[in-house]
Write a structure and sequence with these properties.
single chain; about 325 residues; mainly beta; Tachylectin-2, Chain A; 6-stranded antiparallel sheet; 3 helices; globular; Phytase-like_dom
């Protein structure tokens, strides 16, 4: 029995090794991706937000999922960045279910290690994209072809915890950059939140200052994006220690002018948990003008059977944003 068990174990290890080695490089594949439309919740809608659509993203492809950041391109495509160091280029969904083959590409070469691939935030401007990498506390700038142009490990964020580093990154309208630390993943963490405001491109070593942000009420910042009017939308998350984990999400905003003295307070938040499938939303992108902003959110499934990769499209009238 022992010999048979040992032989079976060796056979399984051999099969796993063959499978692992035969897995194609992620930049060379176009996995089949399913977008499964999800009906809106029957509960009361939030008067400040309209849910235009929610889709679950599915694929059998190895290393699919883990989406923690996204940017909206000028050609109306989304780029979803993942914890696996990959980027998925996705046309904006326009209705119900869809199935398509989409490019899944690797960003950079150092993706074998967690510290080299843990993309947690993204922001874009003028054909360039900046990524925040947790664990190594680095900021990477990509060119139009998604090749790395520059990488820096700013000393201002160098001491942030390995699993609580830069979780949010936003380029402000005036060219400054705001990075927010996730902080300790505990329920009821007290204010203030910690961030760094860079005077310019953080990969170019500009001057920076630490900022303290209050009003999170025990939630953690997981991403941020600059709205069309210059305000900074901040996606917030709180983790409840039930089984499986229970996620609560909120949307709030900052006035960038309030950051001048190194402190700022979040607006009264909008609750997302009652209008979206409750999950681990970690990425936000926004675009629009006038009385309609389009907001896109993506969730990180953490490679878990209890979670999913959700893509949500919301619209918001900025005149209804809480003070």
């Amino acid at each position: 029995m022992v010999r048979k068990s040992l032989a079976l174990l060796l056979l399984l290890l051999g099969l796993v090794t063959v499978w692992w080695r035969s897995e194609p490089r992620s930049e060379d594949i176009e996995p089949t991706v399913e977008l499964v439309a999800f009906p809106q919740f029957a509960g009361p809608a939030d008067p400040d937000l309209a849910v235009e659509g929610v889709w679950q993203l599915r694929s059998r492809q190895f290393s699919f999922g883990g989406f923690s950041a996204l940017v909206l391109r000028a050609d109306q495509q989304l780029r979803l960045f993942s914890d696996y160091g990959t980027v998925l280029e996705l046309p904006l969904p326009r209705g119900g279910d869809a199935t398509m083959r989409l490019p899944l590409r690797r960003v950079g070469e150092d993706t074998a290690r967690k510290s080299g691939r843990d993309i947690e935030a993204a922001t874009a401007f003028g054909g360039q994209t900046w990524l925040a990498l947790e664990n190594r506390n680095a900021i990477v700038r990509l060119g139009t072809t998604l090749r790395i142009e520059r990488e820096a490990r700013p000393s201002a964020i160098g001491g942030w915890p390995a699993n609580g580093g830069p979780e949010s990154l936003a380029r402000l309208a005036d060219g400054r950059f705001l990075a927010l630390r996730e902080g300790k993943v505990v329920v009821g963490e007290t204010d203030p939140l910690v961030g760094v405001l860079f005077d310019g491109d953080p990969t170019e070593d500009p001057a920076s200052r630490t900022v303290a942000i209050t009003g999170a009420d025990g939630y953690h910042p997981v991403d941020a994006a600059t709205a069309p009017d210059g305000r900074i939308l901040v996606l917030l998350r709180r983790l409840g220690f039930a089984w499986p984990f229970e996620f609560h999400s909120r949307l709030a905003w900052l006035d960038p002018d309030d950051l001048a003295d190194g402190t700022a307070r979040l607006s009264a938040p909008i609750d997302l948990s009652s209008i979206l499938p409750r999950d681990n939303y970690e990425g936000i992108a926004v675009r629009g003008a006038g009385h309609r902003w389009d907001i896109w959110l993506v969730s990180d499934d953490n490679d878990s059977h209890f979670q999913a990769s959700w893509l949500a499209h919301l619209t918001l009238d900025p005149g209804r944003l809480p003070d």
